[in-house]
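HOLO CASE FILE
Compound: S-adenosylmethionine
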Amino acid sequence: MSAIDTLPPLREVIARHRLSARKALGQNFLLDLNLTAKIARQAGDLTSCDVLEIGPGPGGLTRGLLAEGARRVLAVEKDARCIPALEEIAAAYPGRLHILQGDALEIDAPAHLTKPIRVVANLPYNVGTELLVRWLTPPDWPPYWQSLTLMFQREVAERIVAQPGGKAYGRLAVLAQWRSDARIVMALPPGAFSPPPKVSSAVVHLTALPGPRHPADPAVLSRVVAAAFNQRRKMLRAALKGLAPDIEDRLRAAGITPTDRAEQIPLEAFCALARQLDRS
Ligand code: SAM
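Model generated. Tokens follow.
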């Protein structure tokens, strides 16, 4: 019998520790251990990796990660009520589950991990995008993580993998696709969670590329993309006029028609424009 089978069902864990879901903490729990094992498998081979899990809650996904053979899991949970439940899992997997109580936005997680590192999380929706942007914009590239396997609201997942030409395409797509491969690997209906959220969810798997697809300075690219999509209905010559007095010339030099809108511009052209603006 594997360790996962010796632990009580999640419903019982939740009842015994009185883990009534709190909306303010984005708590929508996964109770089906077949499903959490399936999500853990989307992250690839975990056996020689440390895994960072944000928001383990009662530990359904944590149990999946450990059962799938993760070398070590660092679980960062804000809600103190969940810690005793997670300690029961740690006891069933001696030395393999490390629990940190605190806010994932404040904790220096990589300091507690050994490479190679994969991040796997059913993210709290209120901080999910902020965490993703931080993972995608580290001070140096390649980042400390090899892959990110993350549950988002479906609409956010679609923005991450979006291609030019539609409403979903924006800053998140450019940031995610510039230095990673991003794919939606699973779709989950509201009923997969307890309590069910209002919207559907999806798991996105991102793999860090060794370097960017097209050269650009990260800070300049970030500025260009933020300005372009902040006023996405405007023509680029207007949306970007604050970036350089001769923006029309620079747009043309980057191969972009100044009357185009941000939504139509492929990643490669945004990088070309960032290089043009970096020339002073
Ligand atoms: N992983 C569990 C599962 O799949 O059933 C719970 C997922 S639930 C969507 C999100 C979890 O993130 C909750 O346990 C919540 O308490 C925790 N959380 C919310 N904000 C957090 C933060 N800033 N830092 C760390 N954990 C957080």
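CASE NOTES: The mean pLDDT is 96. The chain has two domains: 3-208, 218-278.
CLOSED: yes
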